[in-house]
Amino acid sequence: MPPAIAPDPLASLTPPMRWLLERAAPDEPALALLNPRHTLEQLYVTWMGSEHVVSAIRLIVAVLPVRESIWWAWVSARYATQMEGGKAPSAKEHATLTAVEQWIVRPDDAARRAAWDAGEKSGLDTPVGLVATAVFLSGTTIAPSSVPPVPPPPGVAMPIVSGAILLSAVSNSNADLIPSTLLSFAAQGLEIVKRLGGWDAALQLSYDTHHRQIAEYEQAINPPSPR
Known about the structure:
The protein is mostly helical. The protein is built from eleven helices and no strands. Helix 5 packs parallel to helix 9.
């Protein structure tokens, strides 16, 4: 008897909604609460009310444009150095926070590379180092400026942003404060969604932008053959 094939929990979703859930990669218990009739806002509320805060944070990161999500991660990483139970930043981590802030204010290639350089020095396994990595991967090339561009795959920075936010929360030396920190981070991310016009507007913007970037990426890595 052939093994039974589990039904696809995302099969009945619209293409943008399916894309978002695949991109967000929620935990299986959170995914089990998915109701195709629910809006994104209802899904978020359901996950928050069921203590699936990590999946809810991933959902917010997935629906945000990359610059806004990196700003959120930067704020989280900075807060991790100031919160009760947090660890004060080293000089190198402080320099990375400053370099990322400069990219947020002026997101040009020089600022992007400066953030990456600072992140390498502070350690790419730290919250701020992950934010610097996301900044670097948000650009149009991962190659040195002296050689032809090598574009990063679209969306590659997104899970790194999620990791930076979650690592910022769990870096607290007082484990009792981690849940409230996660809730605080989620609330801040939700405010960004609201400023973008709500869940539906943010999803459409993110979905359209991603597919435009996919087309540009395919064109960049598959140049037309010479005649």
